[in-house]
Specification:
- With about 110 residues, the protein is mainly beta.
- About 5% of the residues lie in helices and about 45% in strands.
- It has 1 helix and 10 strands.
- It has one helix at about 100-105; strands at about 5, 15, 20-25, 35, 40-45, 50-55, 65-70, 80-85, 90, 100.
- The strands form 3 sheets. The protein has a 4-stranded antiparallel sheet.
- The chain is globular, with a radius of gyration of 13 Å.
- The chain starts with a strand and ends with a helix.
- About 25% of the residues are buried.
Length: about 110
């Protein structure tokens, strides 16, 4: 739909269009990257993967779900990648961190 999701190391997630930046979430622990899967924003933070929900469709996350808690992410990892092995989400920081789209969409 032409929008992009952007995370900042300060703990914010923004939804960006050609004309507007709107904060979608705040207070996350050093977001290192994100992926949007099935309309759900998945954020890799320093301590966990958080799934964000906009329950009332007002453009701001109302619920922060700890999808996968981990020990702090080692330095040097800064992204989440979506691969087309079937439909999975994986992150470079955790070799065993591979989830099916069904698990993500819950």
């Amino acid at each position: 739909d032409g929008r992009a999701a952007v995370s900042t190391l300060n703990g914010d997630v923004w939804i960006v269009t050609e004309t507007e930046w709107r904060r979608f979430a705040t207070g996350l622990y050093e977001p290192l990257g994100l992926a949007v899967v099935g309309g759900k924003v998945m954020v890799l933070g320093r301590d966990r993967i958080t799934r964000l929900y906009d329950l009332d469709a007002d453009g701001e996350a109302d619920r922060y779900e700890s999808f996968h808690a981990v020990d702090p992410v080692p330095g040097g990892y800064r992204d989440v990648r979506r691969y087309r092995r079937g439909e999975t989400l994986s992150c470079l920081a955790f070799p065993d961190c591979v989830f099916s789209v069904d698990e993500i969409l819950g």
